[in-house]
Structure formats: structure tokens, C-alpha cells
Design the sequence.
């Protein structure tokens, strides 16, 4: 199976900060990479699909980039509602895998 | 409105069986790829199974041979039959549509959206 590794595992930041989360695949996955946001007690929410396409309704401060094995999720200016856990997920293989998650906390 | 609603979770003893249901509205289950994803308490997301529109099915190694994904087109509902349950199967189980976009080169990009609210399965004696 393709292993997805996110870094960092946790991150403290302040409102207004620019934040970048990295996701690395154990083999090349082209642009078959999605990002999700999950808040406590809630289902995950799709943010970015195909590495860099913003899902409808998601604020433009979220952006994704990358191809091959290395990907990033960037939040340009953190808002209070952005403090959550973020997951990457590859759809290259029929054996779907997620990263372990990055918990974004308020500093 | 596109919506998924799971049901069927609960407390079950190790070795027991349980069937989860996921009722869809606003779209047709039969013409979409559909999936189950679970999350153990305090842990990350783990993909469990997917069923393609052509009825092909795939499973995570951790559930292969014990879980079966299926759908009832007449009820527009997705199911997950879980047998030989273990303590490590304890989790919130989400169903999700595995939607797609095809680019101009014919590449199919897939993602999970929407998700249901989840149903908790607890395996314990």
C-alpha cells in the first residue's frame, strides 16, 4: 500500500499566520491527492481535490500544491474556525490511504 | 440536497456481527462509487472499503474476509456487513461518496464528498 506521511503531526499558530502542512507519498501518485479538514465530533470536510483544486464553497485562503510524491496545504491567513485536524488522502491506488493527520492548535 | 445518513452502530461483543446502513438522498448510489471510512477513538482516518458503480469491491487488509460492502439500489442505500468483529474494529464508521472529476486527458481524480455524520461501533465484552 502507498504510505502517506504528513508533517508536522501538530502545529501551534496564531490567527493571521500563514501555515503550511506537508504530505509525502511513498511512491509517485501524480496529482491524485486530496485534503480534508476535520473538527472534533464532526465528519471530515473536503477542502482540496486533485492536489490543487479548491472545493466549491471553501475559502480562498486555502490552497494546495504539489505533484508526484510531495504535496502541501497552505492556509494564507489563519482564521479562528481553521483550528482543526487536517488529513491528506491518495486516490491513485484502489487501496486508498490517508495521512496520519496534522492537528492545528491555537498558540 | 445531497446527504448521507448512517445507522446500525452499537455495542457488540467480540466475534459478533453487525450491519451498518447508509441512506443516500439527492443522488443515486448505484451510479456512484461509494465507500466506508472509519476512525478509532482519538485516532486518524482509516479507509475500510469501496464499491464501484460496476460492482467491483475493494477492502483494507485489516477487514478483508470479515467485512462485505454492498448496496440496495431500490432503497438507494449502502451497507457494510461486519462479521467476526474485534476490539480493534471499535470506531466511528462514516460512509462517503467517492466522487470524481475527469480532466481533458482522461485522468479520473476521485475524492470523498459528501460524508455522513458517522455511526459508532463499539466491540467489547
Sequence:
Amino acid at each position: 500500500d502507498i504510505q502517506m506521511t504528513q508533517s508536522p503531526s501538530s502545529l501551534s499558530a496564531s490567527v493571521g499566520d500563514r501555515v503550511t502542512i506537508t504530505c509525502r507519498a511513498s511512491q509517485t501518485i501524480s496529482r491524485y491527492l486530496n485534503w480534508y479538514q476535520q473538527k472534533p465530533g464532526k465528519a471530515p470536510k473536503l477542502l482540496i481535490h486533485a492536489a490543487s483544486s479548491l472545493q466549491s464553497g471553501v475559502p480562498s485562503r486555502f490552497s494546495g500544491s504539489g505533484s508526484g510524491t510531495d504535496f502541501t496545504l497552505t492556509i494564507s491567513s489563519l482564521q479562528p474556525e481553521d483550528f482543526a485536524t487536517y488529513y491528506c488522502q491518495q486516490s491513485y491506488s484502489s487501496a486508498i490511504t490517508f495521512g496520519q493527520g496534522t492537528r492545528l492548535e491555537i498558540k | 440536497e445531497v446527504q448521507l445518513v448512517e445507522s446500525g452502530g452499537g455495542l457488540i461483543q467480540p466475534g459478533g456481527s453487525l450491519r451498518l446502513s447508509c441512506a443516500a438522498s439527492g443522488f443515486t448510489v448505484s451510479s456512484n462509487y461509494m465507500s466506508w471510512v472509519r476512525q478509532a477513538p482519538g485516532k486518524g482516518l482509516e479507509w475500510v472499503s469501496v464499491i464501484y458503480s460496476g460492482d467491483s469491491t475493494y477492502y483494507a487488509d485489516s477487514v478483508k474476509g470479515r467485512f462485505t460492502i454492498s448496496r440496495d439500489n431500490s432503497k438507494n442505500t449502502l451497507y457494510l456487513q461486519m462479521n467476526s468483529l474485534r476490539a480493534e474494529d471499535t470506531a466511528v464508521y462514516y460512509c462517503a461518496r467517492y466522487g470524481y472529476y475527469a480532466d481533458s486527458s482522461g485522468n479520473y481524480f476521485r475524492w470523498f464528498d459528501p460524508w455522513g455524520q458517522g455511526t459508532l461501533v463499539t466491540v467489547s465484552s
In short: The first strand of chain B starts at residue 3 and ends at 7. The mean pLDDT of chain B is 96.
